[in-house]
Amino acid sequence: MFADFYQNLAEWLTDVKKNEVTQAVELIEHAKVLVKAAEEIPEEKIKQFIENFKYDLNEFYQQNQEQAKHSIYLGLMKESFWAVMSNITDKSQLEWAELCEDFHHDGVYQTNDVIGFGVLECKKCLKTQQVTHCSKVNDCLHCGNNQFTRRSLTP
């Protein structure tokens, strides 16, 4: 269910122009139907549902947190979500935020440095890797080198 919702959200975000008016109206109409249905549910039932939901989420988290840390599926889903979000972000604003860090690093990033956004280019093999969210720099996947330059994002 969550994967379907995430996939729909990702598709919608990547094609905003197509979905701007028509789907926004449909979404609002659907929300109206849900709100009307929710108004008919007694407040006590809603509170009980929320408490049960919180309890279930906490139990699920406690039982699966170690597996989630090492889940390839969840890792890929997280990375693809960040990629979608970076595609719809105002890249000129991100560049201003990263400019100070570029000066601080004299244009060279090394393994374990923290970078926000951009494209890292290996100084040895010139292979690139895109960084879509704040994360630590890892060794080059192609040659193992630990020094990179950050290319600016294209707005």
Structural features, described:
The radius of gyration is 21 Å and the shape is elongated. A hairpin with a 5-residue loop joins strand 3 and strand 4. The chain has 2 domains: 86 residues, no CATH class; 61 residues, no CATH class. The two termini are 34 Å apart. The strands form 2 sheets. The protein has a 4-stranded antiparallel β-sheet. A two-stranded antiparallel ribbon has the order 2-5. The mean pLDDT is 80. With 155 residues, it is α+β, with helices and mostly antiparallel strands. Helices cover 59% and strands 14% of the residues.
Quick overview:
This protein is of the alpha+beta class and 155 residues long.
- Write down the Rg: 21 Å
Number of helices: 6
Question: Low-confidence stretches at least 5 residues in length (pLDDT < 50)?
Answer: none
The structural domain count equals 2
Shape: elongated
Q: Estimate what percentage of residues fall within beta strands.
A: 5-15%
Order of helices and strands: HHHHHHEEEEEE
State the end-to-end CA separation. 34 Å
* SS-derived structural category: alpha+beta
List how many beta strands DSSP finds.
6
Q: Average pLDDT, to the nearest integer?
A: 80
Percent range for helical residues?
Answer: 55-70%
- Strands side by side in the biggest sheet: 1-6-3-4
Major beta sheet, specifics? Answer: 4 strands, antiparallel
